[in-house]
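so my prof wants the structure for this chain in the tokens format not the other one, which i didnt know existed until like an hour ago. anyway here's the sequence
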Amino acid sequence: TDRVSTKVILYPGLQLRFQIYSRSILLSICFTMLSQSFRQFVALLCLVMSATTWAMSDPATGIAFPPTRDELNIFGVGVRKKGPIKIYSVAMYCQAALKEKLATISRSSSKDDALLALQSGANEGPCNFLLEINFKVGAEKIASGLANAVVPRHSGSISDVDSLKSLILGGVATNCKGGAAVKGTQLEFQCSPETGVDVAVNGIAQGNVASPTLAKAFCDVYLDAKSASPALVNSCLEYNCAP
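here's what i got, hopefully its the right format
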């Protein structure tokens, strides 16, 4: 046999000397160490990638959304359609803790669990929904459409929904060209189980509806089984869950 004397440096200042009686064994050990280093590198790269938040675009409309909003991370994007008309794109923003939880759930083998975790995590909030109009809609129509979607999901007073509708209607009528939600108009809904729903139109705050049940209902408009944007739900699972 060939005796090979070698020295392995485990850490700076810590060295280990030993003798190997076969070059093949030495090569095997070196290969194993390199393989382990590569696996560690890949694991580190995946960790960095999972912690990085990227801007996202809705493939149906081409509308782009920023990676963060009010210190919340983007979770997914989708389109709201009525027949062939792509009315608006919507992005969902939520806390990093929910992103970490979803990363442990498989979207293929445990889709029901993933959907439940997504919906409950959003309801626990805070959670923001940013809408950008793609097809011109009148102020009354967009306000009524969103309010009507909330009604069957809301367990609180109907006056909460009326207040939400008024904030949307007033915001669009006041801050949008021609008093209508034209292409590029942005509507933002900040949902919190503590403070309710804050409404902004084109970045201008319109007011708050202090109703936690309304906040939950608004989240459910986009995340329950009858989502107003199935594409948003699919995007959230695709972007945040394990395969």
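also thought this was worth mentioning. DSSP finds seven helices and 13 strands in the chain.
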